[in-house]
Structure formats: structure tokens, C-alpha cells
Amino acid sequence: MAGVAFIGAGSNIDPLENLLSGLKRIIENERAALVALSSFYRTSPVSDVAQDDYLNCALKIAWRGTPRELLTFLQALEAAHGRTRTVKLGPRTLDLDILLFGDTVMDEPDLIIPHPGLHERRFAIVPCLEMEQGLIHPRLGRPLSEFLDRIGPEQKIELFRRVSPGEIASFQDKKREKQ
Ligand code: AMP
Fold first, then answer.
1. What is the number of the ligand 1 atom nearest to the C-alpha of 110?
2. What's the whole-number average pLDDT of the chain?
3. C-alpha 172 – ligand 1 centre gap (Å)
């Protein structure tokens, strides 16, 4: 099985470094071919836990494998970046979510596609629409853009900056190269 996946990435601990490092590992993977990359956005945490703002982005890849194989790969990357799940919705070094996988709709206990938070999170929708304006939510059958109007003003998002695939490819991951 193969498909085009939209992956959401976020971090609020050394966020630029962790995002660049995580994205580099994704685009270097032999099963992943980068199709598009969104800008990086600074966003407010969607959580009651006091914590720093996030950097978020999304990428679109052609993935040679199943959604589950992609989840396993992304979870290994999260772990390699020191992600621990001590505080739910707490600060994180690297959060990687499968937002969409083509038109796939699936409900397994540990893998729900589209990601259940996609239509409720500005930080997930905005980067996806930057890459593909006309996206339709495969489960809800509505344009993803419609859901933005239903999200409250407490979810703040602003452009941080554009990042080119070349910048990611040339990122030197000093922390993990030493390991
Ligand atoms: P989080 O702490 O928000 O990264 O959530 C991680 C949990 O969400 C993991 O246990 C995953 O198995 C589960 N999960 C369910 N659906 C997805 C998805 N589409 N992408 C990533 N994780 C998912």
C-alpha cells in the first residue's frame, strides 16, 4: 500500500532545531518522497498546561507503505527526539501526527485517520491549506477551510518563516550526530 500523507509536526522545546531535525529524518527516509512543505508557524498551546508557544508546520509526502508503518516510523522519530508522554498535552520536543492519508478513513484504537484533532486545530489546518487549498476532510465530507471559522480566537497562529527543503537537507543535527 502507498499513499500521499499529510503529516503535522510541532515542538515547543528547542522548537526550530527539533522540527528541522525531525523533518530531515522524514525526507531522508527511503520510503518517503517530499511533495510539499508548509511554512513554519508560531502557535499558542492548545492545552490547560502552562507552557511555551509552539512552532508547527506540515508536510506532504508520498509514502511507500501502510498508514500503520508510517505511524511506527513517526513514533520512533518522536522517541529519538526525547519525546516522553509524562504530561498529556504538556510540552514536547517533537510531535508528529498523521493528519491525512489520501482519502483513508480508519478507526483503530491507536490510529485514527484523519487525525481526530485535525478539524479543530488551527495549527494543523492552516499549514495543510497552505500546501493544498481545496482539501476536503474525508470523514466529514466538507472543505477543510470551513472548519477554520468554527475555531475560537484563543488558538493563535502567526507566520514564523518559510523554510526550504534545502535548509532542512543541510541542517546539521549536532545533538543527535554525537549519539
Ligand atoms: P499525541 O500524544 O497527541 O502525539 O498522541 C499520540 C497517540 O495518538 C498515540 O498513542 C497514537 O497511537 C495515537 N494516534 C491516533 N491516531 C493518530 C494519528 N493519526 N497520528 C498520530 N498518532 C495517532
1. 12
2. 93
3. 28
